Amino acid sequence: MVTLGESCRGGGGEGSTPPSWWRFSVLLLCVSSLPVVGALVEGLYCGTEVCYDVLGVTREASKAEIARAYRQLARRYHPDRLRPGHPGLEGETRDSANEKFLLVATAYETLKDEDTRRDYDYMLDHPEEYYQHYYAYYRRQLTPKVDVRIVILVTICAISIFQYYSWHTSYNEAINYLVTVPKYRIQATAIAKEQGLLNRSKEKGKNRRTKEEIREQEEEVIRDIIKTKIDIKGGYQKPNLSDILLCQIVLFPYYLTNYVIWYVSWIYRFNICREEYGEEEKLYIIRSWMNMSQSQFDSLVESSKQSFLEKQLWIKENYELHKAKQEEQMKVKMATDPRMKRYRRWMKNEGPGRLTFVDD
Predict the structure, then answer these.
(1) Inter-CA distances, 229 with 4, 179, 183, 187, 240, Å
(2) Which 3 state secondary structure label does DSSP give 126?
(3) Which of 273, 294, 299 is closest to 284 using CA atoms?
(4) pLDDT tens across 71-130, in order?
């Protein structure tokens, strides 16, 4: 016969498991002890306060009503305008008023923007989406306030200004150097004399200039002639506004259209119709074989370009032979160069990383 005590112990058998109702009771106790997710989270928006209640407005309040409530509360709690003992501010200190002022400002910043207000209302209506609220809040906090397109445009303009200034500085350095080169100086002086720019007329009276002033004027004339008559190529060429980054981006569709037209024309003329290459096309093929940019190729002297044409380097086989010959000549030059001999002797005797210390 089973007693009442044995029945409460689950049938009295050794090793028996607790009844199912007991397990269910433990589960309910654990679930009830979990924290309840609330809509107001510390660190988001107004914290544990409702932004609408902070400003004293309803959720249906308009922007004008929100702004009016903010101005009234800001005047009341502004630390610089705080008047202790004023009606409605009994017991307020400067620190407590400053905290309330910051809370009012936060509430206004949250509700004045339509997108932020929409996210905040969604948080109040859906408190269970805890992580979504954090993401929406910090996404707006960390997003740049300035339009990214404006930032990109300002950056491109700054780079373009730096480009033009750098090119203009390099161009002036090249002009200053060419003024000192006898070859170009003599040519510029001859051109200036032909144009009557260096004829020294006799000056009398107060208008008579000193020798230093005459020399400075002559130098300026020679400099201007070198600028206008000598075409500088390569990295020191005269800066052009169309070459800066901003103009390149603006003109990119135009350049792309021209390139497509040129490429289609090239295929049609030389691959389909089998036309003979002109001098310009031959030089282009030679430049492509040499992997040189247009400015680098333009900086070469005309005699070198004519030599390339005479050797018919636009033909692949001829260019390969020319390249192999140039490499062989470079090896011979390096083998016979006294500086290279000294370097090889040093590598053999000392080698890199070997230091000789001399005691005093």
Answers:
(1) 122, 13, 13, 10, 17
(2) coil
(3) 294
(4) 988 888 887 776 666 666 666 777 888 888 899 998 998 898 888 899 889 888 888 887
Report d(CA 136, CA 153) in Å as an integer: 28
* Site of tokens 């800001």: 74
Token pair of 224, please? 């201007």
Query: Token pair for residue 240?
Result: 């052009």
CA-wise closest residue to 46 among 121, 132, 130, 142: 121
Tell me the HSE value of 85 on the side-chain side, using a 13 A CA sphere: 0
Q: Whole-model pTM?
A: 0.47
If you search the block for the tokens 């060429």, which residue do you land on? 237
Q: Are 260 and 325 in contact (CB under 8 A)?
A: no
Q: What is the dihedral of CA 29, 30, 31, 35, to 10 degrees?
A: 110
262's tokens: 């040129």
Hey, what amino acid is at 279? Answer: E
